[in-house]
Amino acid sequence: MTLDFHALGFGAGQRALYAADPWSSRGRLFREAASPTRSDFQRDRDRIVHTTAFRRLKHKTQVFIAADGDHYRTRLTHTIEVAQIARALARALRLDEDLAEGVALVHDFGHTPFGHTGEDALQEVLAPYGGFDHNAQSLRIVTKLERRYAEFDGLNLTWESLEGLVKHNGPLLTSDGEGVRGPVPQPILDYCALHDLELANFASLEAQVAAIADDIAYNTHDIDDGLRSGYLSFDMLEEVPFLAGLMAEVRGHYPNLEPSRFTNEIMRRQITAMVEDVIGYAQAALAAVRPTCVDDVRRAGRVMATFSETMAETDRAIKSMLFKRIYRHPDVMRVRANAAAILTDLFHAYMDDPQLMRGHHWADRIAEMPEAARARHVGDYLAGMTDNYAVDTHRRLFDHTPELR
């Protein structure tokens, strides 16, 4: 039986001309037959959800480690919130929701245990060997490190999903071939030599909404978690006029609301205001650029799905408050130093004795590798660890393990 995709509701009738079209994808590195029931972008999203890397996000730190409590965000819950916001933005702008959701779901695959602390620690130990970049690590995971399919390594995602993963924060190269934010990580360059992701162009609007959804999600939930932890107070939120206005609005409607509900009402309004701001800015940008296809978006020379300047200033003010009150709090910095010590110890232990790496393929033939390749292999192993596994492994290998509380 031949299925009619348009009759099933999979067609492009609701998508705008400037949206990515799953029926006109640039394809996969390894050719595969089309699915009779799912678009290519739907297949990408489904492959992402079924990975080991996705499951590991459950036990990777967002800001507060698991020992702090069960109600704080993890990388997984953060990722789900980003995907929900990205999908809402895509729907409002008549984009391909599946591609936007897929990029959102995969965007944090390369994050290490212990949040940005782990990334900083791996960057330091891997600096002599090309450094560590979580975005490049995400690409390595979906093109090389996931071992699920008989015919290829990785997930064999479409060009559009990989483009969104690599460029969701903007182009990596200038038109002259210079790195926009410094040298392009070598894993990205290596993949582009096989499957050119056009690093000097902007990404699709689907990737752009995934990127701004990330900002909206963590700005909001880090405030929520900060209030829960006690590092933030409602008085501190008054430092940001936007948040002060939201609190005044909630108090006006509900003068005696209990703190937990009060927090939730603020967060709801914050997400709504930021989402509506992005939609308004994107609609104005689309009216100005008038793209007639997704490649017009890539060549527009600007981000079209982002905050207005007013909301961007609010975004900067919120981030400044979060850095001062939470990310650089002495208690958090102490835990960060201990977490970094755990990963640093493990790196040197595995470099000295690769057979300590448990796993059917991680220790295979590593002793025969050149030092740089061995270091990258160890970095892959450490980056894939969850917080709990890293701590437990350190306790098994060392006499003393730093406390993370």
From TrEMBL:
Into which family does the record put it? Answer: Belongs to the dGTPase family. Type 2 subfamily.
Kindly indicate whether the keyword RNA-binding belongs to this entry.
no
Where the record annotates domain HD, the positions are 75-219
- Supply the PROSITE patterns for this chain: HD (PS51831)
Q: Which UniProt keywords apply?
A: Hydrolase
Instruction: Enumerate the GO terms in the molecular function aspect.
Output: dGTPase activity
Provenance organism: Mycoplana dimorpha
InterPro entries to which the protein is assigned, alphabetical: dGTPase, dGTPase-like, dNTPase_2, HD/PDEase_dom, HD_domain, PHydrolase_assoc_dom
Which biological process terms from the Gene Ontology are attached to this UniProt entry?
dGTP catabolic process
Its recorded name reads Deoxyguanosinetriphosphate triphosphohydrolase-like protein
Report the Gene3D superfamilies cross-referenced here: Hypothetical protein af1432 (1.10.3210.10)
Sorted alphabetically, which NCBIfam families does this protein's record hold?
Answer: dGTP_triPase (TIGR01353), PRK01286.1-1 (NF002326), PRK01286.1-3 (NF002328)
Origin: domain of life: Bacteria
Q: Name one Pfam family in it.
A: HD
